[in-house]
Amino acid sequence: MADAGTSIIPEAEYKDVVKGLAPALLEDIKASGTLVVRGVVPERKALQWLEDTKQYIAQNPQVKGFPEDDKAVFELWSKAQLEARSCSESLKVQRFLLSLFNKNSAAPDDVSFSTPLTYCDRLRIRRPGDSRFALGAHVDGGSVERWEDPKYRSSYKAILEGRWTEHDAWDIGGRPTAKQNLYDGPGACGIFRAFQGWTSLSHTGPGEGTLKVFPAIKESTAYIILRPFFKANQLKTSLPQQAYLDPSNWSLDLDSPDFPGSPIGRSQELNDETHPHLRLNETLLPMKAVKPGDQVWWHCDGIHAVESEHKGANPSSVLYIPSVPLTEANARYVKDQQVHYQQRIPPPDFPGGEGEKFFEGTGGDADIVTEQGKQTMGLAPLSLEGIDSSEKLLRQKVNKIWGF
Ligand SMILES: [Fe+2]
Predict the structure, then answer these.
(1) Is 404 helix (H, G, I), strand (E, B) or coil?
(2) How far is the CA of 136 from the centre of ligand 1 (A)?
(3) Residue 3: pLDDT band by 50, 70, 90 thresholds?
(4) CA 324 – ligand 1 centroid, Å
(5) 3-state per-residue secondary structure call for 155-189
Protein backbone atom coordinates (compact mmCIF):
# COMPACT_ATOMS: atom_id res chain seq x y z
CA MET A 1 0.00 0.00 0.00
CA ALA A 2 2.78 2.40 0.96
CA ASP A 3 4.56 1.62 -2.33
CA ALA A 4 1.47 2.09 -4.49
CA GLY A 5 1.02 5.59 -3.04
CA THR A 6 -1.80 7.97 -3.66
CA SER A 7 -2.85 6.21 -6.90
CA ILE A 8 -4.42 3.46 -4.77
CA ILE A 9 -7.24 5.82 -3.72
CA PRO A 10 -10.26 5.06 -5.96
CA GLU A 11 -11.89 7.81 -7.98
CA ALA A 12 -14.99 8.14 -10.10
CA GLU A 13 -16.51 10.79 -12.33
CA TYR A 14 -19.74 12.26 -11.00
CA LYS A 15 -21.60 11.32 -14.21
CA ASP A 16 -20.53 7.68 -13.76
CA VAL A 17 -21.67 7.69 -10.13
CA VAL A 18 -25.11 8.74 -11.40
CA LYS A 19 -25.11 6.08 -14.16
CA GLY A 20 -23.82 3.34 -11.86
CA LEU A 21 -20.21 2.28 -11.27
CA ALA A 22 -18.58 -0.90 -12.56
CA PRO A 23 -18.51 -3.75 -9.99
CA ALA A 24 -14.69 -3.73 -9.90
CA LEU A 25 -14.60 -0.05 -8.94
CA LEU A 26 -17.27 -0.58 -6.29
CA GLU A 27 -15.10 -3.35 -4.85
CA ASP A 28 -12.10 -1.01 -4.78
CA ILE A 29 -14.14 1.64 -2.98
CA LYS A 30 -15.36 -0.91 -0.45
CA ALA A 31 -11.86 -2.27 0.13
CA SER A 32 -10.31 1.15 0.66
CA GLY A 33 -13.14 3.04 2.43
CA THR A 34 -12.23 6.25 0.66
CA LEU A 35 -13.07 7.85 -2.67
CA VAL A 36 -12.68 10.93 -4.83
CA VAL A 37 -15.71 11.94 -6.90
CA ARG A 38 -14.65 14.18 -9.78
CA GLY A 39 -16.68 17.09 -11.07
CA VAL A 40 -19.68 16.91 -8.74
CA VAL A 41 -20.28 20.56 -9.52
CA PRO A 42 -18.64 22.53 -12.35
CA GLU A 43 -15.34 24.15 -11.46
CA ARG A 44 -16.64 27.67 -12.09
CA LYS A 45 -19.53 27.12 -9.70
CA ALA A 46 -17.23 25.89 -6.92
CA LEU A 47 -14.94 28.88 -7.48
CA GLN A 48 -17.96 31.18 -7.31
CA TRP A 49 -18.92 29.59 -3.98
CA LEU A 50 -15.43 30.38 -2.69
CA GLU A 51 -15.57 33.98 -3.93
CA ASP A 52 -19.03 34.50 -2.43
CA THR A 53 -17.91 33.05 0.90
CA LYS A 54 -14.78 35.21 1.01
CA GLN A 55 -16.87 38.25 0.24
CA TYR A 56 -19.38 37.35 2.96
CA ILE A 57 -16.54 36.98 5.49
CA ALA A 58 -15.02 40.31 4.40
CA GLN A 59 -18.41 42.02 4.61
CA ASN A 60 -18.83 40.88 8.21
CA PRO A 61 -15.48 41.42 9.93
CA GLN A 62 -16.91 40.45 13.33
CA VAL A 63 -17.07 36.84 12.05
CA LYS A 64 -15.72 34.21 14.42
CA GLY A 65 -13.19 31.66 13.24
CA PHE A 66 -10.32 29.48 14.30
CA PRO A 67 -7.49 30.32 14.97
CA GLU A 68 -8.73 33.70 16.15
CA ASP A 69 -5.75 35.72 14.91
CA ASP A 70 -5.60 34.14 11.42
CA LYS A 71 -9.00 32.62 10.80
CA ALA A 72 -9.05 29.51 8.62
CA VAL A 73 -12.09 27.56 9.88
CA PHE A 74 -15.58 29.06 10.02
CA GLU A 75 -19.02 28.00 11.24
CA LEU A 76 -21.40 29.88 8.97
CA TRP A 77 -24.87 29.92 7.46
CA SER A 78 -23.40 31.24 4.22
CA LYS A 79 -25.37 31.12 0.98
CA ALA A 80 -22.69 28.97 -0.67
CA GLN A 81 -22.82 26.30 2.05
CA LEU A 82 -26.61 26.09 1.99
CA GLU A 83 -26.57 25.74 -1.79
CA ALA A 84 -23.69 23.24 -1.83
CA ARG A 85 -25.44 21.00 0.71
CA SER A 86 -28.81 21.07 -1.00
CA CYS A 87 -27.90 20.94 -4.70
CA SER A 88 -29.15 17.80 -6.41
CA GLU A 89 -25.63 16.69 -7.43
CA SER A 90 -24.42 16.71 -3.84
CA LEU A 91 -27.49 14.83 -2.60
CA LYS A 92 -27.10 12.23 -5.37
CA VAL A 93 -23.52 11.49 -4.30
CA GLN A 94 -24.58 11.30 -0.65
CA ARG A 95 -27.30 8.80 -1.55
CA PHE A 96 -24.85 6.75 -3.61
CA LEU A 97 -22.44 6.57 -0.66
CA LEU A 98 -25.19 5.47 1.72
CA SER A 99 -26.21 2.79 -0.78
CA LEU A 100 -22.82 1.11 -0.26
CA PHE A 101 -23.99 0.14 3.23
CA ASN A 102 -26.27 -2.73 4.17
CA LYS A 103 -28.31 -3.34 7.34
CA ASN A 104 -27.69 -7.07 7.70
CA SER A 105 -27.22 -6.64 11.48
CA ALA A 106 -29.50 -3.66 12.08
CA ALA A 107 -33.25 -3.52 12.67
CA PRO A 108 -34.90 -2.55 9.35
CA ASP A 109 -36.45 0.65 10.74
CA ASP A 110 -33.30 1.77 12.60
CA VAL A 111 -31.87 3.42 9.52
CA SER A 112 -32.62 4.40 5.94
CA PHE A 113 -29.97 4.80 3.26
CA SER A 114 -32.27 6.38 0.70
CA THR A 115 -32.79 9.66 2.56
CA PRO A 116 -29.64 11.58 3.46
CA LEU A 117 -29.91 14.25 6.15
CA THR A 118 -28.00 17.51 6.18
CA TYR A 119 -25.33 18.12 8.81
CA CYS A 120 -24.32 21.77 8.81
CA ASP A 121 -20.60 21.65 9.32
CA ARG A 122 -17.71 24.06 8.98
CA LEU A 123 -15.74 25.39 6.04
CA ARG A 124 -11.99 25.82 5.77
CA ILE A 125 -9.85 28.31 3.91
CA ARG A 126 -6.28 27.26 4.76
CA ARG A 127 -3.58 29.68 3.72
CA PRO A 128 -0.23 28.58 2.21
CA GLY A 129 2.46 28.22 4.85
CA ASP A 130 -0.03 27.38 7.59
CA SER A 131 1.15 24.72 10.01
CA ARG A 132 -1.42 25.26 12.76
CA PHE A 133 -4.37 23.47 11.26
CA ALA A 134 -2.64 20.09 11.39
CA LEU A 135 -4.54 17.08 12.72
CA GLY A 136 -2.83 13.87 13.77
CA ALA A 137 -4.13 10.46 12.67
CA HIS A 138 -7.52 9.72 14.19
CA VAL A 139 -10.89 8.08 13.66
CA ASP A 140 -14.01 10.12 14.36
CA GLY A 141 -17.01 8.91 16.31
CA GLY A 142 -15.54 8.59 19.80
CA SER A 143 -12.76 6.41 21.19
CA VAL A 144 -13.48 3.87 23.98
CA GLU A 145 -17.13 4.03 22.97
CA ARG A 146 -16.33 1.50 20.20
CA TRP A 147 -15.72 -1.13 22.89
CA GLU A 148 -17.78 0.25 25.76
CA ASP A 149 -21.17 0.91 24.16
CA PRO A 150 -22.89 -2.45 23.49
CA LYS A 151 -24.57 -1.25 20.29
CA TYR A 152 -21.41 0.31 18.92
CA ARG A 153 -19.39 -2.79 19.89
CA SER A 154 -21.82 -5.05 18.05
CA SER A 155 -20.69 -3.43 14.80
CA TYR A 156 -17.30 -5.18 15.31
CA LYS A 157 -18.67 -8.57 16.44
CA ALA A 158 -16.77 -10.67 13.89
CA ILE A 159 -13.46 -9.00 14.80
CA LEU A 160 -14.03 -9.41 18.54
CA GLU A 161 -14.88 -13.06 18.00
CA GLY A 162 -11.56 -13.63 16.25
CA ARG A 163 -13.05 -13.74 12.74
CA TRP A 164 -11.66 -10.43 11.51
CA THR A 165 -11.61 -11.47 7.84
CA GLU A 166 -15.41 -11.79 8.06
CA HIS A 167 -15.82 -8.20 9.27
CA ASP A 168 -18.13 -6.34 6.90
CA ALA A 169 -17.24 -2.65 7.15
CA TRP A 170 -20.39 -1.93 5.10
CA ASP A 171 -22.81 -3.55 7.52
CA ILE A 172 -24.11 -0.52 9.40
CA GLY A 173 -24.49 -2.77 12.48
CA GLY A 174 -25.32 -1.05 15.76
CA ARG A 175 -23.98 2.37 14.71
CA PRO A 176 -27.38 4.02 14.00
CA THR A 177 -28.46 3.59 17.63
CA ALA A 178 -25.01 3.53 19.31
CA LYS A 179 -23.78 6.13 21.79
CA GLN A 180 -20.68 7.51 20.10
CA ASN A 181 -20.12 10.16 22.73
CA LEU A 182 -20.50 8.64 26.23
CA TYR A 183 -18.37 11.30 27.93
CA ASP A 184 -19.71 14.50 26.41
CA GLY A 185 -16.32 15.38 24.97
CA PRO A 186 -15.70 18.76 23.36
CA GLY A 187 -15.86 18.70 19.59
CA ALA A 188 -17.95 15.54 19.46
CA CYS A 189 -20.35 15.23 16.56
CA GLY A 190 -24.04 15.13 17.53
CA ILE A 191 -24.99 13.14 14.47
CA PHE A 192 -23.93 9.77 13.04
CA ARG A 193 -22.07 10.32 9.76
CA ALA A 194 -21.70 7.20 7.61
CA PHE A 195 -19.17 9.04 5.47
CA GLN A 196 -17.20 12.14 6.20
CA GLY A 197 -16.50 14.31 3.24
CA TRP A 198 -15.62 17.64 1.78
CA THR A 199 -16.24 19.52 -1.42
CA SER A 200 -13.13 21.17 -2.76
CA LEU A 201 -13.23 24.85 -3.69
CA SER A 202 -9.58 24.93 -4.80
CA HIS A 203 -6.82 23.08 -6.63
CA THR A 204 -5.12 21.15 -3.86
CA GLY A 205 -2.67 18.28 -4.04
CA PRO A 206 -0.32 16.29 -1.81
CA GLY A 207 1.82 18.59 0.34
CA GLU A 208 -0.72 21.39 0.15
CA GLY A 209 -2.32 20.92 3.55
CA THR A 210 -4.69 18.20 2.39
CA LEU A 211 -6.29 15.14 3.97
CA LYS A 212 -4.38 11.90 4.55
CA VAL A 213 -6.08 8.52 4.61
CA PHE A 214 -5.34 4.87 5.37
CA PRO A 215 -7.08 3.18 2.44
CA ALA A 216 -7.69 -0.35 3.77
CA ILE A 217 -10.85 -0.15 5.86
CA LYS A 218 -11.31 -3.76 6.99
CA GLU A 219 -7.66 -4.24 7.94
CA SER A 220 -7.31 -0.94 9.82
CA THR A 221 -10.58 -1.48 11.72
CA ALA A 222 -9.59 -5.02 12.72
CA TYR A 223 -6.22 -3.80 13.99
CA ILE A 224 -7.73 -0.89 15.94
CA ILE A 225 -10.40 -3.05 17.57
CA LEU A 226 -7.95 -5.83 18.56
CA ARG A 227 -5.08 -3.56 19.59
CA PRO A 228 -6.08 -3.17 23.31
CA PHE A 229 -5.92 -6.95 23.73
CA PHE A 230 -2.23 -7.27 22.87
CA LYS A 231 0.92 -6.07 24.59
CA ALA A 232 4.58 -5.99 23.62
CA ASN A 233 6.79 -8.36 25.59
CA GLN A 234 9.79 -6.11 25.10
CA LEU A 235 9.60 -2.37 24.68
CA LYS A 236 10.40 -0.50 21.50
CA THR A 237 13.46 1.08 23.07
CA SER A 238 15.09 -2.29 23.72
CA LEU A 239 14.66 -3.89 20.27
CA PRO A 240 15.30 -3.15 16.60
CA GLN A 241 12.08 -2.07 14.83
CA GLN A 242 11.63 -5.39 12.98
CA ALA A 243 12.00 -7.46 16.14
CA TYR A 244 9.71 -5.12 18.11
CA LEU A 245 6.91 -5.56 15.56
CA ASP A 246 7.44 -9.30 15.10
CA PRO A 247 4.43 -11.38 16.26
CA SER A 248 6.74 -13.28 18.63
CA ASN A 249 7.16 -10.05 20.63
CA TRP A 250 3.41 -9.67 21.25
CA SER A 251 1.16 -11.58 23.63
CA LEU A 252 -2.51 -11.63 24.37
CA ASP A 253 -3.40 -9.26 27.21
CA LEU A 254 -6.93 -9.48 28.49
CA ASP A 255 -6.13 -8.02 31.91
CA SER A 256 -4.69 -4.55 31.46
CA PRO A 257 -7.22 -1.72 31.31
CA ASP A 258 -5.22 0.15 28.63
CA PHE A 259 -6.86 1.26 25.44
CA PRO A 260 -3.97 2.79 23.47
CA GLY A 261 -4.83 6.10 21.86
CA SER A 262 -8.36 6.18 23.30
CA PRO A 263 -8.59 9.30 25.46
CA ILE A 264 -11.93 9.73 27.22
CA GLY A 265 -14.18 12.27 25.50
CA ARG A 266 -12.08 12.50 22.34
CA SER A 267 -11.65 10.74 18.99
CA GLN A 268 -9.65 7.54 18.59
CA GLU A 269 -6.04 8.66 18.13
CA LEU A 270 -3.30 6.70 16.42
CA ASN A 271 0.45 7.05 16.07
CA ASP A 272 3.59 4.93 15.83
CA GLU A 273 3.63 4.45 19.62
CA THR A 274 0.00 3.45 20.12
CA HIS A 275 -0.54 1.50 16.87
CA PRO A 276 2.96 0.58 15.63
CA HIS A 277 2.03 -2.16 13.16
CA LEU A 278 0.07 0.29 11.00
CA ARG A 279 3.38 2.05 10.16
CA LEU A 280 1.39 5.24 9.72
CA ASN A 281 4.43 7.28 8.73
CA GLU A 282 4.53 5.31 5.47
CA THR A 283 0.97 4.13 5.01
CA LEU A 284 -1.08 7.26 5.63
CA LEU A 285 -1.40 8.58 2.09
CA PRO A 286 -2.09 12.16 1.04
CA MET A 287 -5.26 12.63 -0.97
CA LYS A 288 -4.67 12.82 -4.72
CA ALA A 289 -4.84 16.21 -6.39
CA VAL A 290 -8.35 17.66 -6.54
CA LYS A 291 -9.85 20.62 -8.34
CA PRO A 292 -12.75 22.89 -7.41
CA GLY A 293 -16.00 20.89 -7.55
CA ASP A 294 -14.43 17.50 -6.71
CA GLN A 295 -15.45 15.73 -3.51
CA VAL A 296 -13.36 13.60 -1.15
CA TRP A 297 -14.98 10.97 1.06
CA TRP A 298 -13.95 8.56 3.80
CA HIS A 299 -15.75 5.83 5.78
CA CYS A 300 -16.85 6.53 9.38
CA ASP A 301 -14.24 4.05 10.72
CA GLY A 302 -11.51 5.36 8.40
CA ILE A 303 -8.17 6.57 9.79
CA HIS A 304 -7.43 10.08 8.58
CA ALA A 305 -5.25 13.10 9.32
CA VAL A 306 -4.56 16.55 7.92
CA GLU A 307 -1.10 17.28 6.53
CA SER A 308 0.91 19.20 9.09
CA GLU A 309 2.02 21.90 6.70
CA HIS A 310 0.54 23.62 3.69
CA LYS A 311 3.48 24.03 1.31
CA GLY A 312 1.42 25.00 -1.73
CA ALA A 313 1.01 28.39 -3.34
CA ASN A 314 -2.76 28.86 -2.99
CA PRO A 315 -5.28 28.58 -0.16
CA SER A 316 -6.70 25.10 0.25
CA SER A 317 -10.43 25.55 0.68
CA VAL A 318 -13.15 23.03 1.42
CA LEU A 319 -16.76 22.84 2.51
CA TYR A 320 -17.25 19.98 4.96
CA ILE A 321 -20.39 18.14 3.87
CA PRO A 322 -20.82 14.58 5.17
CA SER A 323 -23.19 11.80 4.13
CA VAL A 324 -25.69 11.20 6.95
CA PRO A 325 -28.26 8.39 6.97
CA LEU A 326 -31.80 8.83 8.25
CA THR A 327 -32.13 7.61 11.86
CA GLU A 328 -34.29 8.82 14.73
CA ALA A 329 -31.30 10.21 16.62
CA ASN A 330 -30.01 11.99 13.53
CA ALA A 331 -33.47 13.44 12.90
CA ARG A 332 -33.53 14.82 16.47
CA TYR A 333 -30.22 16.58 15.88
CA VAL A 334 -31.54 17.98 12.58
CA LYS A 335 -34.56 19.36 14.45
CA ASP A 336 -32.28 21.22 16.89
CA GLN A 337 -30.09 22.33 14.02
CA GLN A 338 -33.15 23.70 12.24
CA VAL A 339 -34.03 25.83 15.29
CA HIS A 340 -30.48 27.23 15.25
CA TYR A 341 -30.74 27.84 11.51
CA GLN A 342 -33.92 29.89 11.97
CA GLN A 343 -31.98 32.19 14.32
CA ARG A 344 -28.73 31.98 12.28
CA ILE A 345 -26.80 31.02 15.40
CA PRO A 346 -24.04 28.36 15.19
CA PRO A 347 -25.32 24.77 14.81
CA PRO A 348 -25.82 22.82 18.08
CA ASP A 349 -22.43 21.04 17.90
CA PHE A 350 -20.44 24.28 17.88
CA PRO A 351 -19.66 26.87 20.56
CA GLY A 352 -22.65 29.20 20.80
CA GLY A 353 -22.81 32.97 20.56
CA GLU A 354 -25.00 35.28 18.59
CA GLY A 355 -23.71 33.86 15.31
CA GLU A 356 -24.85 35.68 12.20
CA LYS A 357 -28.02 37.27 13.58
CA PHE A 358 -26.70 40.72 12.71
CA PHE A 359 -24.65 39.85 9.62
CA GLU A 360 -25.28 41.18 6.15
CA GLY A 361 -25.91 38.76 3.30
CA THR A 362 -26.51 35.62 5.37
CA GLY A 363 -27.94 32.57 3.61
CA GLY A 364 -31.59 31.59 3.89
CA ASP A 365 -34.37 29.45 2.46
CA ALA A 366 -33.82 30.77 -1.07
CA ASP A 367 -30.33 29.22 -1.01
CA ILE A 368 -31.69 25.75 -0.25
CA VAL A 369 -32.08 25.01 -3.92
CA THR A 370 -34.05 21.74 -4.00
CA GLU A 371 -37.18 20.43 -2.34
CA GLN A 372 -35.19 17.45 -1.14
CA GLY A 373 -32.66 19.86 0.37
CA LYS A 374 -35.48 21.31 2.47
CA GLN A 375 -36.45 17.81 3.62
CA THR A 376 -32.88 16.91 4.54
CA MET A 377 -32.79 20.04 6.74
CA GLY A 378 -36.08 19.12 8.45
CA LEU A 379 -37.81 22.11 6.85
CA ALA A 380 -40.31 19.98 4.93
CA PRO A 381 -41.92 16.60 5.70
CA LEU A 382 -40.50 13.41 4.20
CA SER A 383 -42.71 11.95 1.51
CA LEU A 384 -44.58 8.75 2.42
CA GLU A 385 -45.79 7.87 -1.07
CA GLY A 386 -44.58 4.70 -2.71
CA ILE A 387 -42.29 3.90 0.24
CA ASP A 388 -41.90 0.36 1.62
CA SER A 389 -43.21 -0.41 5.09
CA SER A 390 -40.07 -0.29 7.29
CA GLU A 391 -38.86 2.84 5.56
CA LYS A 392 -42.34 4.33 5.90
CA LEU A 393 -42.39 3.63 9.65
CA LEU A 394 -39.10 5.44 10.12
CA ARG A 395 -40.18 8.38 7.95
CA GLN A 396 -43.42 8.68 9.92
CA LYS A 397 -41.45 8.78 13.19
CA VAL A 398 -39.11 11.41 11.77
CA ASN A 399 -41.94 13.60 10.45
CA LYS A 400 -43.42 13.48 13.96
CA ILE A 401 -40.08 14.49 15.52
CA TRP A 402 -39.96 17.41 13.12
CA GLY A 403 -43.51 18.46 14.02
CA PHE A 404 -45.22 17.59 10.69
FE1 LIG B 1 -11.77 13.75 11.64
Answers:
(1) coil
(2) 9
(3) low
(4) 15
(5) CCHHHHCCCHHHCCCCECCCHHHCCCCCCCCCCCC
- pLDDT recorded at residue 136: 93
The dotted CATH code for 5-401 is: 2.60.120.330
Distance from the alpha carbon of residue 141 to the mean position of ligand 1, in angstroms: 9
Residue 201 C-alpha to ligand 1 middle, in angstroms?
Answer: 19
> What separation in Å is there between the alpha carbon of 85 and the centre of ligand 1?
19
Model confidence at 159: pLDDT above 90: yes
Q: Could you tell me which residue, 356 or 127, shows the higher pLDDT?
A: 356
Tell me whether strands 112-117 and 324-326 are parallel, antiparallel or unpaired: antiparallel
Boundaries of every domain in the chain = 5-401
Burial of residue 196 (CB within 10 Å: 0-12, 13-18, 19+) is: buried
HSE-CB at 296 with a 13 A cutoff on CA atoms is 27
The residue that leads in pLDDT, 72 or 81, is: 81
Q: Does residue 115 sit in helix, strand or coil? A: strand
| Rounded CA separation 309/122 (Å) | 20
Q: Reading across the β-sheet that carries 304-306, which strands appear in turn?
A: 268-269, 135-139, 304-306, 211-213, 285-286
Radius of gyration of the CA atoms of the chain, in A: 21
Write down the pLDDT at residue 132: 77
